[in-house]
């Protein structure tokens, strides 16, 4: 049984029955049958379906967004933005996907011609998290459909309403039966599905532990796996930067989605020459963030996704203080919902255990760096390597940060955000493989070499 609970009120929304083994089997066979038909469709047919799916999301935008807000607590206005990004993702692959599937030609040394074809492989299992319940799934789904594959979704337990709506939108767009199916299963059932010979690959967005578990099973059965795991992104600010522009972006990066984003800036690393000015402005701005009813347009930040997540964040903050940190803000608000105020941690040793963790809530750690060398050293001192944001107008510093920060993505003088046009993913313990862009389409395609 799955239960959706509104984290803003603690009220139960709905319950959902877990699938029985025979129901899971039926869905796996349905996916295999759907792939046998879908793999033969033309890129143009696939693009037309993606456009129709985008149209359904556009038509039902308000309903989809409200469900996100009710199930995991993000503000309604940010939920609308998430649905709009999904629409853009579907439309990007509808427009650009057919050209991506055109064979790449190469002239061989013997004068003959070679080609690389991108061909579909089969049903792909996606294990997805609750923080962006629609967008995280679309990042896998749109390129999967475009490549000629089919998808099965094992979604987070607290957003089963969102998962069901995704299946509904697909059907309403005229998707063939079995092209995309929601699997209402618990985590313990994932391993047997990965092992099933009908599943060709798996993609997971989630924790390090979940990623290691899925990768172990996938490796044992020689299945391709893409992992997008945690992140503790550095947000570096140097003296040449415009700190009046950097501060509001740092606040947004830390409190968007109530701090529950893998690529939001979590560790503010500030050059000593401007540290005090930045800290004062940043702290004042963080304390001014309004937490409250996520349906209210005036609210900046909703609750955390669940009371369990609230307990996790509060425990991390206590450990940060025990390590020597000073916390300003970051306190629980009331008792009815999973609310916490935005906060700032200072004085935490940058090489301490807690500084190496990802705090998945609206509290930032601020560190002082004496120069660019130390800023890079602090940035790379964590096991993660997902994203990063650097603020400098010095060209040499830009080149150094782009080259030397250990991350899959770097934004210069802006907050990092995902976009359909460019690949998304990380290195180190943040995972491997890429979503979005052409690379996201290639991850689950058979790159077949053809000699002519």
Automatic annotation (TrEMBL):
Residues 3-450 form the Aldehyde dehydrogenase domain. It holds the Pfam family Aldedh. InterPro entries: Ald_DH/histidinol_DH, Ald_DH_C, Ald_DH_CS_CYS, Ald_DH_N, Aldehyde_DH_dom, ALDH_GabD1-like, GABD/Sad-like. SUPFAM superfamilies: ALDH-like. GO terms for molecular function: aldehyde dehydrogenase [NAD(P)+] activity; succinate-semialdehyde dehydrogenase (NAD+) activity. The keyword Translocase does not apply. Coiled coil: none annotated. Keywords: NADP, Oxidoreductase. The keyword NADP applies. Belongs to the aldehyde dehydrogenase family. This is NAD-dependent succinate-semialdehyde dehydrogenase.
């Amino acid at each position: 049984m799955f239960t959706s609970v509104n984290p803003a009120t603690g009220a139960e929304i709905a319950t959902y029955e877990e699938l029985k083994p025979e129901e899971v089997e039926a869905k796996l066979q349905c996916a295999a049958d759907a792939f046998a038909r879908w793999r033969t469709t033309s890129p143009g047919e696939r693009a037309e379906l993606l456009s129709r799916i985008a149209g359904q999301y556009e038509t039902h935008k308000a309903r989809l967004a409200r469900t996100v807000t009710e199930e995991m607590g993000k503000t309604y206005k940010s939920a609308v933005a998430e649905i709009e990004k999904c629409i853009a993702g579907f439309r990007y692959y509808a427009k650009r996907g057919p050209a991506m599937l055109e064979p790449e030609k190469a002239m061989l040394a013997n004068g003959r011609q070679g080609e690389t074809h991108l061909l579909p492989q089969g049903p792909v299992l996606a294990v997805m998290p609750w923080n962006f319940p629609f967008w995280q799934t679309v990042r896998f789904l749109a390129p999967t459909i475009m490549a000629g594959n089919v998808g099965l979704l094992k979604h987070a337990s607290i957003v089963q309403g969102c998962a069901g709506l995704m299946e509904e939108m697909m059907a309403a767009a005229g998707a063939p039966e079995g092209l995309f199916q929601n699997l209402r299963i618990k985590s313990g059932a994932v391993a047997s599905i990965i092992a099933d010979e009908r599943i060709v690959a798996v993609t997971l967005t989630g924790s390090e532990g979940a990623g290691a578990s899925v990768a172990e099973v996938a490796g044992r059965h020689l299945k391709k796996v893409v992992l997008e795991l945690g992140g503790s992104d550095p947000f570096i600010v140097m003296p040449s930067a415009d700190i009046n522009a950097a501060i509001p972006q740092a606040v947004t990066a830390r409190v968007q989605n109530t701090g529950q984003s893998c690529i939001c800036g979590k560790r503010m690393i500030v050059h000593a020459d401007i540290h005090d000015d930045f800290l004062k402005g940043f702290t004042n701005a963080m304390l001014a963030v309004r937490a409250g009813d996520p349906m209210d347009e005036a609210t900046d930040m909703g609750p955390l996704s669940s009371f369990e997540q609230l307990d996790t964040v509060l425990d991390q903050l206590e450990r940060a203080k025990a390590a020597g940190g000073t916390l300003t803000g970051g306190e629980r608000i009331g008792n009815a919902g999973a609310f916490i105020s935005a906060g700032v941690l200072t004085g935490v040793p940058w090489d301490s255990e807690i500084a190496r963790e990802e705090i998945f809530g609206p509290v930032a750690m601020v560190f002082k760096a004496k120069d660019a060398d130390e800023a890079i050293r602090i940035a790379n001192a964590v096991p993660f390597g997902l994203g990063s944001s650097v603020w400098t107008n010095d060209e040499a510093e830009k080149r150094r940060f782009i080259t030397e920060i250990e991350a899959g993505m770097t934004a210069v003088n802006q907050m990092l955000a995902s976009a359909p046009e460019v690949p998304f993913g990380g290195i180190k313990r943040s995972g491997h493989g890429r979503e979005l862009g052409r690379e996201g389409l290639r991850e689950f395609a058979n790159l077949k070499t053809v000699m002519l």
